[in-house]
Specification:
The protein has 109 residues and is mainly β. It is 5% helix and 39% strand.
């Protein structure tokens, strides 16, 4: 579970190459999540419960502490309904109830 938005999440998408997720919310923000911690966890092969980790005592595969908010993009005046990563460039596009489509540039910094 990725927590941080203050209203309904309308859209979420995985980055095509990086360990990132982008989400759009009616709280008027776009958030970029670093999910590198999820990649490091491995489910046990052949396990009846694929959501358990190999190391006893660790939290579930999609535990809260494994994803961090990397960027909060603010600029829409109404709820954001849709967001998408550009497949090859460091760009995000979002659409909101403010009748605007915004292009956001992001980098690793």
């Amino acid at each position: 579970v990725l927590t941080g938005h203050n209203h309904y999440v309308m859209c979420a998408q995985f980055h095509p190459k990086q360990d990132l997720v982008v989400s759009a919310s009616l709280d008027q923000t776009v958030r970029v999540w670093d999910i590198t911690g999820l990649r490091r966890k491995r489910a046990q092969p052949g396990s009846a419960d694929a959501f358990r980790t190999q190391t006893p005592g660790q939290i579930d595969l999609f535990g809260q502490s494994d994803a961090l908010v990397k960027h909060v993009l603010e600029g829409h005046d109404r709820g954001v309904n849709w967001v998408h990563f550009h497949p090859t460039q460091p760009l995000i596009v979002s659409g909101a109830d403010d009748r605007q489509v915004k292009l956001w540039r992001f980098n690793e910094a």
